[in-house]
Amino acid sequence: MRLILAASAALLIAAPAFAGDDVMANFYGNTVITKSGMGESHTHYKADHTVTADATSMMGSMTLTGTWSINDKGELCRNYSNAPAMMPNPLCYPWASHKVGDSWTITTPRGSADAKLVAGVQ
Fold it and tell me: Where are the domains positioned within the chain?
């Protein structure tokens, strides 16, 4: 009986640590560089749920500013205050935690892009 109580107590103590995991923690202070046929962007996520992106495309360069959130589907949603008319806003797509040095593919309704998490603000 003591073993069951001890195990139950350990689970209760550990539960808040799991609930507090932040899928975005490794992104703060670092840069997500995405490249596609449309161009390249350097995106910076902050713990206060703000996001900035410096994007370069065939149409020129721009800096986007806004907010980010994780919706109930576990998708990352970015809502830019100055998004171009052709850009879905908010833009939501599947997301997962990554470490500096990781590369992955982001798939959105507009297509896909190669992404990499690099150290620092670039």
Answer: 22-118
Measured between alpha carbons, how far is 45 from 70 in angstroms, rounded to an integer?
12
What is the longest distance spanned by two Cα atoms in the chain? 69
pTM attached to this predicted model: 0.79
What is the token pair recorded at 10?
Answer: 């350990």
**Separation of alpha carbons 114 and 85, rounded Å:** 23
Q: Mind listing the pLDDT tens digit for each residue in 32-63?
A: 999 998 899 999 999 999 999 999 988 899 99
Q: How many other β-carbons are positioned within 10 Å of the β-carbon of residue 32? A: 22
Half-sphere exposure for 8 (CA within 13 Å, toward CB): 5
Residue 8 in contact with residue 80, Cβ under 8 Å?
Answer: no
Token output for 109: 């309704």
Q: Answer whether CATH 3.90.550.10 is correct for domain 22-118.
A: no
